[in-house]
Structures are given as structure tokens and as C-alpha cells.
Specification:
It comes from Peredibacter starrii. This protein is mainly α and about 60 residues long. It has one helix at about 1-59.
Length: about 60
């Protein structure tokens, strides 16, 4: 009976490790998939902000 309880504790930890690993892998895939799109949008925002600042400086 004690072995059964001990095995259940190990099972819970393994489930946690597996789920955490899957979440991490999904995050990496998402960053790889959408990283270029996000980078382009950030660069566009930077250039728009720079243009606005330059326009305000000239006034």
C-alpha cells in the first residue's frame, strides 16, 4: 500500500513536468511563428513615433 501512495506522488510530479514542457514548447512555436509579424509591427510603430517626434520638433 505504501508503494502505491509513493507512486502516485511521483505520477503527479511527472504530469506537472509534462504539462509544463508542452506549454513551453507551444510558447516557442508561437514565438517562432508570429515573431516576424510582431517585429514588423514594432518597427512600424517605432518609425511612426519617430516621425511624430520629428514633426513636433520642427514646429
Amino acid at each position: 500500500m505504501k508503494k502505491l501512495v509513493k507512486n502516485e506522488k511521483g505520477q503527479g510530479i511527472m504530469e506537472y513536468v509534462i504539462i509544463s514542457s508542452l506549454v513551453g514548447i507551444c510558447c516557442l512555436v508561437a514565438v517562432r511563428q508570429f515573431g516576424d509579424v510582431v517585429q514588423k509591427r514594432i518597427n512600424n510603430m517605432k518609425s511612426q513615433i519617430s516621425q511624430e517626434i520629428q514633426l513636433k520638433d520642427t514646429k
